[in-house]
Amino acid sequence: MNTQITPDERRQLAEKVGMNEQYLYQCLTGRREMSAWEAVRIEQETEGRVSRKMVCQGSWKSIWPELVGVQA
User: Fold this and answer.
1) Please, are residues 56 and 33 in contact by the beta-carbon 8 Å criterion?
2) From CA 12, how far away is CA 64, in angstroms rounded?
3) d(CA 63, CA 16)
4) In angstroms, what CA-CA distances link 72 with 15, 39, 47, 59?
5) Position 71 confidence tier, pLDDT thresholds 50, 70, 90
6) Which class for 17: exposed (0-12), middle (13-18), buried (19 or more C-beta within 10 A)?
7) Contact (Cβ atoms closer than 8 angstroms) between residue 55 and residue 27
8) Is residue 1 very low, low, confident or very high in pLDDT (cuts 50, 70, 90)?
9) Taking the model in full, what pTM does it have?
């Protein structure tokens, strides 16, 4: 599981960006894939604390190949 934010932080973030908290949780745990534009928005909103890689675990390499090898 790739969750580096607390449940409270996740709830606050979901509310702030108008996203369902369970959807965010599912994306963070690899159960679902977030759309590319939402992933970028979450990454920007959290100043990189929640990265695109974290919410698009199965597809980020094909969407953003330039990030392969970059720590996040």
Assistant:
1) yes
2) 27
3) 25
4) 24, 13, 11, 15
5) confident
6) middle
7) yes
8) very low
9) 0.86
Amino acid identity for residue 46 in this structure = T
- Per-residue model confidence as pLDDT tens digits over 18-58: 999 999 999 999 999 999 999 999 999 999 999 999 999 99
Tokens 């977030």 found at: 34
Burial zone of 7 (CB within 10 Å; 0-12 exposed, 13-18 middle, 19+ buried): exposed
CA distance 66 to 31: 24
Write down the residue that tokens 């094909």 correspond to: 62
